[in-house]
Design goal:
The chain has 166 residues and is mainly alpha-helical. It has one domain: Winged helix-like DNA-binding domain superfamily/Winged helix DNA-binding domain (Arc Repressor Mutant, subunit A), CATH 1.10.10. Helices cover 58% and strands 9% of the residues. It contains 6 helices and 2 strands. Strand 1 and strand 2 form a beta hairpin. It is elongated and about 55 Å long.
């Protein structure tokens, strides 16, 4: 097996672990929020209020799909609609304080899950992992996560820290 195959196998194995950690972090809210809906909450949290077309574009879905997701989140009190003061014909979709709380709670759970695994590594392994993951994400075109050590954010799907939009 050449290096590319060995690295690919290792990354696939690690991705299974990360998906498992992500799923566990959502377990506390899975009765009220699906993974796609949570992703929408994260986008609103990290990139701020948006109209439907912009939000759908950020999510990579059709506006009708984004509308169904946002309708469910509004019904759950996690998002809301506001008339855009600059264009009264347009509606702006925003995160509510409850929605922000869900994002912060799930992000914190995920961070704790990952930290528990990382703590099992010795300092040399941690340094090697940082170097390898930074190289991997750079090669994949993913921007570096903002913030400083100890920040609860980032979760993903954005390149700016969360904004309280309520």
């Amino acid at each position: 097996m050449d290096d590319v195959d060995a690295v690919t196998r290792a990354v696939l194995t690690a991705s299974r672990l990360l998906v498992s950690l992500s799923a566990r972090s959502l377990a506390a809210v899975e009765d009220s929020v699906t993974l796609p809906q949570f992703r929408l909450l994260v986008v609103l949290s990290s990139q701020g209020p948006a109209n439907l077309v912009t939000l759908a574009d950020r999510l990579g879905v059709k506006p009708s799909t984004a509308m169904r997701m946002i309708d469910r989140l509004i019904a759950a009190g996690l998002a809301d609609r506001q008339v855009n003061p600059n264009n009264r014909r347009e509606t702006t979709l925003r995160l509510t304080p409850a929605g922000l709380g869900v994002v912060e709670d799930v992000t914190s759970r995920r961070r704790n899950e990952i930290a528990a695994v990382v703590e099992r590594l010795d300092s040399g392994q941690r340094a090697a992992l940082i170097s390898a993951l930074n190289a991997f994400t750079e090669a994949g075109g993913e921007p570096a996560a903002p913030g400083k050590p100890g920040d609860v954010y980032p979760l993903g799907w954005a390149d700016t820290p969360p904004q309280n939009t309520a």
